[in-house]
Amino acid sequence: MAKLPPADRREFLDLGRHRMHPADTTLIRQGDPAGDVYLLIDALVKVTATVENGAQTLLAIRLSGDLVGEMAVLDNTARFATVTTCRRSLISHIPGPVFLAHLDARPATALTLNRMFSSRLRYANQRRLDIGGYPVAVRLGRVLLELAERHGTRTGERASVGVTLTQAEYAALIGAAPDSVNRAMRQLAGLGYLDSRSRPVKITKYTELATFSDIST
């Protein structure tokens, strides 16, 4: 939303019905037909998908200012993933036809969405590269740093990752077994990079964790 011009932002905010949802509300269920598009006003949600063998994968975390549910509306297909609120959340429900008509009438908004899709594709490709190229502890470090950058706050060498995830969710996010994530979390905490007991996890040596995780700061 911050990337839209102010006038376009106000129009977009007025497209839908604003509703408050408690934590653990399923906004979108994988396999359902397309319907509303959801603009996160003051919200935190997780995007998950289940594959044919029953395994569930955490695909992404989305927060205030993000949009979810737009892909099925744009290409008129079934929902690809399930979207669930992680905390009490204020969300705008935009009917699919209203969303499409607005994009036709507002090229600046459509261009901003295209840039968002490009950013998400780069993120997904980076996750696949990380899974193939790094051990579990490094993949975990890279994801923690990225979460802190996108959703947390940093003061000097200390940073909060901003969202509370279970070890199973971290495992799904980096393509590893929960036991492997548990060992990696203990390893990073033992090196002094993390306070893994806090909720959400806190990074205590940001620069050193970035070096360990092969990230330039």
TrEMBL record:
InterPro entries: cNMP-bd_dom, cNMP-bd_dom_sf, Env_Response_Regulators, HTH_CRP, RmlC-like_jellyroll, WH_DNA-bd_sf. SMART domains: cNMP (SM00100). Residues 1-85 form the Cyclic nucleotide-binding domain. The keyword Transcription applies. The keyword Iron does not apply. PROSITE patterns: CNMP_BINDING_3, HTH_CRP_2. PANTHER family: CRP FAMILY TRANSCRIPTIONAL REGULATORY PROTEIN, HTH-TYPE TRANSCRIPTIONAL REGULATOR ARCR. It holds the Pfam family cNMP_binding. This is Crp/Fnr family transcriptional regulator. Keywords: DNA-binding, Transcription, Transcription regulation. Residues 134-207 form the HTH crp-type domain.
